[in-house]
Amino acid sequence: RDMAEHRSGCDHRLVKCDHPGCDRMTQARYAASHARLCENRPFACPNRPRCEWMGTRAGVEDHLTECLHEVIPCGFVDGFKDECAGTCALTLPRVQMMAHKEVCRYQSAECKHCGESMALRRLGQHEATCSARFYECQNCAQ
Asked: What global pTM score does this model have?
């Protein structure tokens, strides 16, 4: 075999990545591996077909922070310190989460009597027994 033929097919020759914006040179034997991991590789949103975003592998994380079809947790927390405390475990696509958060029983609400903040799921019981609910009449002291 002559040297020119060897060089054109040698696994150790340097080849440039095919993805636009990537100037990486790798040995031919590693080119396929680099192509799969290349940050400039065209990448579709993992929520396809609902989301039609196309970008690069490097841009998908940023996209997922705002993708309307990414499934996210509610995140509201009942911070009361007892055995019933917890976090809303619901997960929904971001596009549906706003409507859920308007009615979530773990969202924070204030007692109309004392102003204490607590999870909505505790508010009814608290307001029924809130010490500020009962007040003394300034006219008759009862």
From this structure: 0.67
